[in-house]
Amino acid sequence: MTDGSTHRGNISQHVQSIPSSGIRRFFDLLASMDGVISLGVGQPDFVTPNHIRQAAIQSIEDGETYYTSNYGLVELRHAISRHLQRLYGIHYDAGTEIIVTAGVSEALNIALEAILDPGDEVLSPDPGYVAYLPCVLIAGGRFIQVPTRAEDGFALHPEELERRITPRSKAILFGYPANPTGAVLSRDTMLAIADIAQRHGLFVISDEIYDRLVYGVDHVCVSSLPGMKERTILLGGFSKAYAMTGWRLAYTCARNELTEAMMKVHQYVMMSAPTPAQFAALQAMNSGEEDVRGMVAEYDRRRQLVVSALNAMGLPCVEPRGAFYAFPQVGASGMNDETFAERLLMEERVAVIPGSAFGEAGAGHVRICYAQSYDLLEQAMDRMRAFVARHNKSTAK
Ligand code: PLP
C-alpha cells in the first residue's frame, strides 16, 4: 500500500473528534426495562392538537405533495413574520429574511455552516443543549464553554462570557429558556450580552425553541434589542410549544445577507422542509394560540409539583422559569450524577438524565423533564423520595 492511500477507509477527523454521547448507554439500558417512568426525553407528552393534524391531512388530500419554495411556503413565512412582530415587535421580511427548516436541528446546522471558518470559536453556556458542541465541531469551529452556576439560576454571566473572548471568537450560541436548566435571561443580562456582542463584533445564534414556555416571566427576544437584528440569527420552532416534535419544522430569521448564506446550505442539504408539516405549522401559527396557553398552564402546574417535591426530599432545585426541565442537585445522596441516574433507574424505575451529559458544569445535577402527565409525575416523585430516603436518611423527609 502506498502512503497516499493509507487514509482510505478512515472516518473524517472532525467526525472522530465528536465525543460519543454520554447518555446512549443509559438509553440502551432503559429500552431493555419494563415499568419505567421516563422523565428523560425532552418532548411534550401531548399529541399535536387535532386541528393542526387535520390541516396536514387536508393538504395531502388536496394534492399538496410537491416541494415548496426553498424558503418555505410563502403564507407560512408571512405568518411567522406576523407572529414575531406581534410577540416581540421585531420585523422580519417574509420574502428575504426567513427560511423554513426541518427542525431547529437543521436551522442550527445551517446557521453554523453559514458563519464559521475552520478554527472559529463559538462561545456557549455550560451546561447546554447536547447538540451545540457536536454541531459546532461538524461546522469546523471550536466550542468554548462558559460555565454557569446554580447560584445565578444558571444564567449566562456577561463577565464570564467576555473573559473568554479571543481574536478567533466568532459567535455566541445560546438557547433561552434553557435546556437542561430551565433558566431564562433577564432583560438586563440580555442587554449586557448584546453590548458584548456589539463591542466585539460577534454574531449571536439564539435558539428560541422554548420561547413560549415561560412561567411568570417574559421571554426576551435578543434580536429585538437595539442594534441586534443585524448580528443575530434567530432560530424558532414548532416542536415544543405546539407539541410537534415529529413533524420536523422550524425556521431561521436573519438579515438578508445571512439568510442568503444559510440558503446556500439549506437548498443543497434539505431543498425544502416537509410540505404537509408546513401546512400544519401554518395552522398552528394562525389558530394554535389557545392550545399553547393550555399546555403552558399545565406545564406550570407540573413544574410546581416537581420543584417543591424535589426541594422537600432534599434535592435542592433552583426554580426553573422556562422550558419544561428541572435541574436539581443530587450531591446529598452521596452519589455523582451518573450513579444517581443509573441507580434510580435500576432501583425505582425512574429515568432522569445525568447533568454531566450537558457539560462539565452540569455535574452533580440531573435533568428531569416534567412534560409528562401529572399522575405519572406524582408517582415518579414518590419513587424518588423513597430512593433519596434510602440513600440519605439524614436529609430526606
Ligand atoms: N434546541 C433545543 C434547546 C432543544 O432542546 C431541542 C430539542 O430537544 C432542539 C433544539 C431540537 O429542536 P427540533 O425538534 O426543532 O429539531
Point out poorly predicted stretches. none
The helix/strand series, from N terminus to C terminus, equals: HHEHHEHEHEHEHEEEHHHEHEEEH
Spatially, the strands of the biggest sheet line up as 2-8-7-6-5-3-4
Ligand names: pyridoxal-5'-phosphate
- Major sheet description: 7 strands, mixed
- How many helices? The count is 13
Question: Could you tell me the mean pLDDT?
Answer: 94
Q: Tell the overall outline.
A: globular
How much is the radius of gyration in Å? Answer: 21 Å
Taken as a percent bin, the fraction of beta residues is 5-15%
- Going by helix content, strand content and strand pairing, the class is alpha/beta
Q: What kind of oligomer do you see?
A: single chain
Distance between the termini: 68 Å
Helical coverage, percent range: 40-55%
> What's the count of strands?
12
What does this structure look like?
Helix content is 40%, strand content 12%. The protein is of the alpha/beta class and 397 residues long. It has a seven-stranded mixed sheet, sandwiched between helices. The chain is globular and about 60 Å long. The model has no long low-confidence stretch (mean pLDDT 94). The protein binds pyridoxal-5'-phosphate. The site of pyridoxal-5'-phosphate has 13 residues, from helix 5.
What labels would you give this structure?
single chain; 397 residues; alpha/beta; 7-stranded mixed β-sheet; 3-stranded antiparallel β-sheet; 13 helices; 12 strands; 40% helix; 12% strand; globular; binds pyridoxal-5'-phosphate
